[in-house]
Specification:
Blueprint (H helix, E strand, L loop, with lengths): L55 H8 L3 E3 L1 H11 L11 H13 L17 H11 L4 H19 L16 E5 L4 E5 L2 E5 L3 E5 L15 H5 L18 E6 L28 E3 L14 E3 L37 H7 E2 L4 E2 L2 H15 L6 E7 L2 E8 L2 E5 L2 E2 L4 H12 L12 E6 L2 E6 L18 E3 L18 E6 L1 H6 L8 E9 L5 H12 L12 E10 L1 H7 L9 E9 L9 H20 L2 E2 L13 E2 L24 H4 L7 H18 E2 L2 E2 L8 H5 L2 H14 L10 H33 L6 H20 L2 H13 L4
Parallel strand pairs: 1-13, 6-11
Antiparallel strand pairs: 2-5, 3-4, 5-6, 7-8, 9-10, 11-12, 12-13, 12-14, 15-16, 16-17, 17-18, 18-19, 19-21, 20-21, 22-23, 24-25
Helix pairs in contact: 1-8, 2-9, 3-9, 4-5, 5-9, 13-15, 13-20, 15-18, 18-19
Length: 796
């Protein structure tokens, strides 16, 4: 096998036949400049061996930098999407829709009679809101809210506004109570969530009539307000989730006698507060240790006639905690929101973000999501995509019902694309197996043949070999087995079932992986250590979805920073290095190191060696790196220098020796988590915490491991391979001591007023990198194992 794949715990890609003759040459090694905002942690390595609840710190980290946007600007964008001409700015839509929904708000509208006795009267909305305002515990408030919302939707469906779409009978939305467990499988793990209320297509709403396009009156206002009895709801069907927090047994201010359209009045608080960890690089801590923060709202865009964008409150960091917020949940609700591992309640923003993560995972290539948070009588819109999170300012739907009605009016006219589904991917079920097809995609800058045209990919999303992502922002890499008649005909040497597709969200300003692979191919043509050891890219497509577009529309500052774009790449399927053990493991591992160093010297800096077949985090020598806050590296395998507060702040340049150190951590990981190429049972997993804690804490745990690694040897290990692990870790320790001595020497010189020459320090770094590689490959165990390998392999 070859260095095609070093992806621990994730069964997808790797290998070519081993070669007996390996070079061990080294020339001057150069460091790569620190990528702007990089040298930090990547998404966690996956869910194999990690419980879903352990992902919570990563979710909390992602919501810390939530952006904010005035509600009128957000509503204007949602209406634009739901219009007949979404590409042409129509700033007048918000005012026109506010005027149009006023008759519904004031109880002066009734629907046509679709079926006998099926008439909805907007006057019933006020009664449902009065019921909602009565003192009650949270769970009792779902029913009146759902009745008011579904009655409003029935009425709004018949309200025309020039330029706006009519509602789609295929996607007629309905508000449905859930408040019961929803399960979803993530590779070997199953998640359990219990959202309060969903927005669903009516055909997915439980206990609906057979005529799903026209659910009867009693379902919309009665059955939908109860826990579903017709079977469980699936995340793949959810359009949005609504999470409630209610001050128990506290009367809210009810609706006024009538409404008129007025300028927006900021709610109190205007933005839902986001829990922020005290240390930006530290672990998520208990509730008592959380600070409360929201980023400044986006600058105001030119407002519609009555949208009071000029009055957006700028200070959202003040103390605006509601009176009884610490006790705003019932006992039953607390049980639902408690993380059994961390033993602390989830903030509503974290709960809702976890639901977003489930929704991202349920459908392939989701572009964005919308969820709602409701605290008492205030609703906030939360928008999620792979660039980050945006929340709107609040709507008090008792005092400002027209704006809440406009929100429903826009969402009711959304198509699947507006809800964030990538409509180029179509789910099909064949013999009970779920698959996704991608047909007719136009290839731009395709590989091998420019006339490939569309491609008929069938993505096997139910395959046990899939590698799926769970989280919010970032690359969100997913890998699936695929089949394609066109690609099979184009590459007849590749078996039909030996192709995989990787879809991920790359930073828009980062040099693309296909471009990097072109450079890799150039190096492979000259370097024997690279030739035959790099991925074979069969086809790729760059989709037009740019995450910065919504930020530009909403006026979010630095909208382009960290903007992402969706790619799908198809490769020849390889096998995982984790399937190897003993001398074969050493063979592939050392080939990986030699291939990697040849690429580095050729100007390709990999930066994430867990997957040598994966170049979406790589950079070229001539490229300055990502423009946003890309996290470069995979935490459990990152060098200790990078798992420090300084490393996480981007103050440590990513050097060659950091990647070389990562190879050692990969070897440690494989040796301690696999027995003869098989992943150990969960009860026997070692090093789990490396994959679930934050980067700085992971660094601390790895340093502790270095002090105790002699206690980790297991009976099943090949003694010589374990001795190689010991020698490699000893090399790392010696290198660390050398670095410390050099730092002390420089500090002493500085105290004496002796300045260290820049060229001297630069040469010292080069020498250090050279020494680390030489020390690793010159150990007695390395040389002995290499001789054993040569005896093991047949002569070429």
């Amino acid at each position: 096998m070859s260095p095609g794949e070093a992806q621990p715990d994730q069964p997808n890609l790797a290998s070519t036949p081993p070669r007996a003759n390996q070079s061990s040459h080294v020339s001057n090694l150069k460091s790569t400049p620190l990528s702007r905002g990089a040298s930090a942690a990547s998404d966690h390595i996956g869910l194999i061996g990690a419980k879903i609840n352990q992902i919570r710190p990563w979710i909390e980290r992602d919501i810390e930098k939530t952006k904010t946007c005035n509600i009128d600007v957000m509503l204007g964008d949602l209406l634009q999407r739901a219009s007949n001409d979404p590409e042409t700015p129509q700033p007048e839509l918000l005012d026109e829709c506010l005027d149009a929904v006023l008759q519904v708000c004031n109880g002066k509208f009734s629907t046509k009679e679709k079926n006998p006795g099926q008439i909805f009267r907007s006057s019933d909305i006020a009664q449902s809101l009065r019921d909602y305002s009565l003192p009650m515990i949270e769970t009792k408030s779902y029913a009146p809210f759902i009745k008011a919302t579904n009655t409003a939707l029935a009425c709004l469906e018949e309200i025309p506004v020039e330029g706006m779409r009519v509602t789609s009978s295929d996607l007629e939305m309905i508000c449905q109570r859930n408040d019961m467990p929803i399960y979803q499988k993530h590779q070997t793990e199953k998640s359990k969530r219990m959202p309060d209320v969903f927005i669903l297509p009516s055909k997915s709403s439980k206990e609906a009539s057979s005529d799903a396009a026209n659910p009867p009156w009693d379902h919309r206002v009665q059955n939908a307000a109860k826990k579903p009895k017709g079977g469980r709801i699936f995340w793949k069907d959810v359009l949005a989730s609504i999470e409630f927090k209610r001050t128990p047994n506290f009367a809210l201010e009810g609706p006024p006698a009538s409404y008129k359209v007025e300028n927006y009045t900021p709610t109190y608080p205007e933005y839902r507060k986001v829990p922020v960890r005290e240390a930006s690089a530290g672990p998520a801590t208990g509730v008592s240790d959380l600070q409360i923060q929201a980023e400044q709202p986006a600058p105001d865009l030119p407002p519609p006639r009555r949208s009071n964008c000029d009055n957006v409150v700028k200070n959202t960091n003040g103390s605006s905690k509601r009176k009884a917020e610490d006790d705003e949940e019932s006992a039953a609700k607390r049980a639902k929101t408690t993380n059994t591992d961390a033993d602390r309640p989830l903030d509503v923003t974290v709960q809702t973000a976890l639901y977003a993560a489930e929704m991202f995972a349920a459908n392939i290539a989701v572009t964005h999501l919308l969820n709602l948070i409701i605290v008492d009588n205030i609703v906030w819109i939360w928008y999620y995509d792979r660039q980050g999170i945006i929340q709107s300012s609040g709507i008090n739907f008792m005092k400002d019902l027209p704006r809440f009605m406009v929100l429903l009016y826009a969402l009711q006219r959304f198509n699947l694309g507006d809800w964030g589904r990538n409509t180029q991917f179509e789910e099909v079920v064949e013999e009970g197996v779920h698959k996704t097809t991608l047909d007719g995609v136009v290839v731009k800058d395709g590989v091998h043949k420019a006339d490939l045209g569309g491609v008929d990919l069938v993505i096997h999303t139910s395959s046990k070999e899939r590698v799926t992502h769970y989280g919010l922002k970032g690359r969100a890499t997913n890998v699936f087995p695929v089949t394609s008649e066109k690609l099979s005909a184009e590459f007849p040497d590749i078996k039909k079932d030996r192709m995989v597709a990787k879809n991920f969200w790359a930073e828009e300003d980062r040099i693309s992986e296909p471009e990097i692979l072109k450079k890799v191919d150039e190096i492979a043509a000259k370097e024997s250590d690279v030739e035959g050891h790099v991925p074979q890219l069969l086809w790729y497509c760059r989709f037009p979805n740019l995450t910065r577009a919504v930020r530009e529309a909403l006026g979010i500052p630095e909208a382009k920073k960290g903007s992402r774009v969706l790619y799908i790449l198809v490769f020849r399927k390889l096998d995982p290095i984790t399937a190897l053990y003993g001398i074969e493991l050493f063979d592939v591992w050392q080939q990986c190191i030699l291939c990697h160093i040849a690429l580095w010297k050729g100007g390709v800096y990999h930066l994430d060696v867990r997957v040598l077949n994966d170049y979406d985090l790589s950079s070229l020598k001539i490229n300055a790196g990502p423009m946003g806050n890309e996290r470069t590296g995979t935490v459990p395998f990152m060098a200790l220098d990078l798992l420090t507060p300084e490393g996480q702040r981007g103050e440590v340049a990513h050097l060659y020796r950091h990647d070389l150190e990562s190879f050692v951590w990969v070897l440690v990981w494989v040796c301690l988590r696999y027995e003869n190429g098989v992943l150990l049972a969960a009860s026997s997993h070692l090093l789990d915490e490396w994959a679930t804690v934050d980067p700085v804490t992971c660094g601390e745990k790895k340093r502790t491991f270095l002090d105790r690694f002699v206690h980790f040897e297991r009976d099943w290990m090949d003694p010589q391979i374990w001795k190689l692990v010991e020698d490699s870790l000893e090399v790392l320790e010696d290198d660390k001591h050398r670095q410390v001595k050099n730092k002390i020497a420089r500090a002493r010189k500085a105290r004496k007023g002796i300045r260290t020459d820049a060229e001297e320090e630069k040469e010292e770094k080069k020498t250090g990198e050279y020494d680390l590689f030489h020390a690793l490959t010159a150990t007695e165990t390395w040389e002995r194992t290499l001789k054993r390998l040569c005896a093991y392999l047949p002569e070429s």
